[in-house]
């Protein structure tokens, strides 16, 4: 797996590079500016980019903007975004813009090496990895609407894990239930959220977006 890092904090940048190389991963470049990152992507054609949301010169959204530019030129590029704080708009944008091969992780999670590497491998495999703290904060700020209030506590747990990007088997392992139980809960979620099967709608993504959109509108 070839990786390019974009992080302006020199200690974190070098720490990430050392951690990944210790895992026998190929860190092709560790950059400190959006322009250097985009040049490294062009030069090395990485499988995964690990990118800080806020980078020079203004430290607002340069990192995520550069990551999205890289994705437009290389749609197969997996991107794991790092942020010091929950950036609700960015988290929602990642899912709304197409969630495959995308992750959003709080920087504090990097210190939990297993969690960080799990997120990295998941996005590299084409999955989604959303920090559970991001999901928890979005949900805690929201008042449930009539449809979401229909969900049982267990169904809300399942939907929260779906929003993190976990598949059915991973959800079953996390909740210590069977795959069949998870499948049953998901069918019930679709029913209670009035999501009917169509040829044009991915009900799993639609359920997660409905949950996150409700949180955003009620902030």
Fold and architecture overview:
This protein is α/β, with parallel strands linked by helices and 219 residues long. It has two domains: 130 residues, Rossmann fold (3-Layer(aba) Sandwich), CATH 3.40.50; 77 residues, Arc Repressor Mutant, subunit A (Orthogonal Bundle), CATH 1.10.10. It is 52% helix and 14% strand. It has ten helices and six strands. The chain has a six-stranded parallel β-sheet, sandwiched between helices. Helix 4 links the parallel strand 4 and strand 5. Helix 2 runs parallel beside helix 3, helix 4 runs antiparallel to helix 10 and helix 6 crosses helix 10. The longest helix has 15 residues. It is elongated, with a radius of gyration of 18 Å. The N and C termini lie far apart (39 Å).
